Amino acid sequence: MGNRIAGTCYLKVDGEQLELSGSITCSMSGAEKEGLSGLSGVAGYKETPRVPFIEVEAYVPANFPVSTLEGMDDGTVTAELANGKTAVLSGAWLAGTVDVNGAEGTTSLKFEGLDGKWI
After folding, report:
1. Disulfide engineering: 1 pairs with which of 74, 84, 86, 119, CB 3.0-4.6 Å?
2. pTM for the complete prediction?
């Protein structure tokens, strides 16, 4: 890998590779901490669960699996990043809808899941 930290990425949904057009964001954190303070100063923090996700912009060719993605209930989404990191989202579903930008031939997709981890 060397010094490369950004660039070419790959995304697979249940083993089927999608063509990425632009951004990809992976959030594998299962919890979020938030500081708590009052009149006497910082008291500590609270920790709340959060849903891990992978969000991408993808091209929409004629064979794009719209119905497969919309029907996904317990899938696996894998994102391979240019820096060598791989994010794996399991128990995944498509959050929201598949809205296609006809002028650009792209869509923004957000996959959420029960478990997310970096490997």
Report:
1. 84
2. 0.91
